[in-house]
Specification:
Elements lengths: L5 E10 L2 E11 L5 E5 L6 H9 L8 E4 L2 E5 L11 E4 L11 H11 L9 H7 L15 H14 L4 E5 L7 H18 L2 E6 L2 H7 L2 E6 L2 E6 L1 H6 L4 H7 L3 E9 L2 E4 L3 E7 L8 E6 L13 E9 L3 E7 L5 E7 L11 E3 L4 E6 L3
Parallel strand pairs: 3-8, 3-9, 6-7, 7-8, 13-19
Antiparallel strand pairs: 1-2, 1-4, 4-5, 9-10, 11-12, 11-14, 12-13, 15-16, 15-18, 16-17
Amino acid sequence: MNKNFFEIDNVNFSTGGKDKVKNVSLKIENEGDVICLLGPSGIGKTTILRTIAGLEKINSGKILLKNKIISSSKIHIEPENRNISLSFQDNCLFPHYNVLENIKFGAARNQKSKKKLDVDEIINFLHLEHVKDKFPHQISAGESQRASLARSLLSKPDLLLLDEPLSNVDQSFKEEIQVKLKKILNELKITTIVVTHDSYEAFYLGSKCGIILDGHLKQYDDPYNVYHFPNSIDVVNFLNRGILIPAKVTGENSLESNDLGTIKGNFIKHYPKGSNVQLLLQPEDLEHDDKSNLKLEVVDRKFRGTNFIYTLKTLSNLLIPVFVHSHHIHQHEVDEKFGIKRPIYIDHIVCF
């Protein structure tokens, strides 16, 4: 007997008769787990949520919640009977209710639930106390989005679906809301699927992340593995957290780069000696060393508060990103030389 809390088994997600994402299979093992789906705009992420909620039907495969089929080619449980709450990216508040009434509508939906949330607490947590008496047309897109999120949380569903829940939220308190949202979801064990294009948000909120590209679920794994062990060049390019450079495998734990010389470390996948590969270099893989005899030209410098990301140009015109802590005393300007510590050692070597 299947014991997963939620499961998608070989489903094609379609809208308007056109397949958007094909042959999707994934599992949420435990009640209260949060997973995030990442992908570019228009790829079909929202279609997946709409289908899980029962707003779209499927022609193959099956979707199960709490060991019960809710969608298949023969079975379709209507949305109102699924106890699934979907919070859309765009304004979906009732226009004739004020914000407080919209939020309380969620609380009234599932009064039998053992999960307890206080309306005033949720309103304060989402910074809505100053607009609770206003109507949807009188508030901003970010406030509308947060009110929709509050309504969804208070409905205490078996499964919560969030479509870009914080895309319109000001950066000044987005992180604060992320922290509180994660705390609420974990404490109340609200199983949640979050759709987002923000990889940092996905890596923070999700115990698992799915990468959707070119109409397929390319990778489904915990955030650490998605970032450090991407399973394809497509995932590397989508995350945009490093570059691929040509190299040749020279031994069991070493390879050679024309631009960087010898690189040692632990290969994630075995390659025969002499293999030509594309090595993934992420910003934290190389270390800065002013005394090194390997110096590259600085072509760009991005200040990120806690760190700098230097972009360095090699002799063959490759552009390599390198992370340096912002407290590092010696800052390098564009056109200056920047030393790379030798010997180069990368704990986990990812190649394609």
